Amino acid sequence: MNPEIPHPGALIVIEGIDGSGSTTQSDMLLQWLQRVGIPSVFTCEPSKGPIGGVLRLHLGRQVELGGPEAEALGFAADRMDHIVSEIAPALARGITVVADRYYLSSLAYQALSCDLAWLREINRFALRPDLTVFLSVPVDVGVARFSQRATRERFEEDRDELARIAGMYDTAIGLLREEGEDVQVIDGTRSPGDVHAEIVQLAVAVLQPRYPGVSISVDAHE
């Protein structure tokens, strides 16, 4: 294997503010990967692990944590458990992992109440994604989309707060790019099919060196 490739599988992260379509696009990417014959798995954060379960209850306002620092540490702990128990083993077996949210979310959401440098420090042992795609949508578009949901999480309540989160995403993306991470920002307001097609084009460049025996089509519909 190419020594510049740290693991046989690829870690591809889909990010965005609430209502950006990250879950939809993660699912569409997973289906495309399976169609072209690349072993793949979907995951998300908070994870389905024990710490992630508590965080989901917290986001649903069923469990209170001891302040923003405890929340941030909870997300960092869940992420490390997620990596060790699920992500890293899959990558080592040549399985591509599609993640709906990862540490970029922590650097945006938790930075509302916590120091950004500290957040980067507590997440410094997390595996770097091979590709992060950020779905850029105006705040009002995100609000319009998630307002149709039957239930909402804590961050889906306040438009002004979501605007601040969007600003923190911009800051965090800039910092990660300075550190050499591949973070691609694309227009998430287009049709799901058009957004998916662009994500596929970005993913192909990451996947081809890892799966030389697989014929990877850039046609998102094949």
Describe this structure in words.
The protein has 222 residues and is α/β, with parallel strands linked by helices. The protein has one domain: P-loop containing nucleotide triphosphate hydrolases (Rossmann fold), CATH 3.40.50.300. The protein is built from eight helices and five strands. It has a five-stranded parallel β-sheet with strand order 2-3-1-4-5, sandwiched between helices. The two termini are 27 Å apart. The model has no long low-confidence stretch (mean pLDDT 90).
**CATH homologous superfamily name?**
P-loop containing nucleotide triphosphate hydrolases
Helix content percent band: 40-55%
Number of strands: 5
End-to-end CA span: 27 Å
In which order are the strands of the major sheet placed? 2-3-1-4-5
- Give the averaged pLDDT, no decimals: 90
- Following the backbone from N to C, one meets helices and strands in this order, namely EHEHHEHHEHHEH
Q: Can you tell me the number of structural domains?
A: 1
Tell me the strand percentage band. Answer: 5-15%
- The class by helix and strand makeup works out as alpha/beta
Low-confidence stretches: none
Biggest sheet: strands, sense, closure? 5 strands, parallel
**Annotated CATH topology:** Rossmann fold
Q: Treating each run of at least 4 consecutive H or I residues as one helix, how many helices?
A: 8
Quick one: CATH class?
Alpha Beta
**Oligomeric organization of the protein chains:** single chain
What characteristic shape results from the CA principal axes?
globular
| CATH architecture designation | 3-Layer(aba) Sandwich
Tell me the radius of gyration.
17 Å
